[in-house]
Design goal:
Helix 2 (about 25-35) packs across helix 3 (about 40-55). The chain is an all-alpha fold. The protein has helices at about 10-20, 25-35, 40-55, 65-80. The chain has a single domain (about 10-80), classed as Orthogonal Bundle (Arc Repressor Mutant, subunit A), CATH 1.10.10. It contains 4 helices and no strands. The structure holds zinc ion. Zinc ion binds near residues 11, 34, 38 and 40.
């Protein structure tokens, strides 16, 4: 067991707690360290954050790649529908 950093899958699992500021300081720091090194995860966190801000909550269930694609499609439809 090392403290070398989180893997992407771990960041994905922690992202909703990270955005809600529910992580303990050590875990939060490890997430932030990972984000420094991993642009795709930064993009992912921003996507989830925007979704949370827009919808008011994170949709139930883990956000797999497929779920993210579906979310983006729904998001575009949603934006159009409200225009
Ligand atoms: Zn990553």
């Amino acid at each position: 067991m090392t403290d070398a950093g989180l893997r992407c899958i771990e960041v994905v699992e922690l992202v909703s707690a990270y955005i809600d500021d529910e992580l303990d300081p050590q875990t939060r720091r490890r997430v932030e360290e990972h984000l420094e090194l991993c642009p795709p995860c930064r993009v992912y966190v921003e996507q989830v954050r925007e979704t949370v801000l827009t919808l008011g909550e994170l949709p139930a269930g883990a956000l797999s790649d497929q779920a993210v694609s579906e979310l983006e499609a729904a998001f575009r439809a949603f934006s159009r529908g409200r225009a």
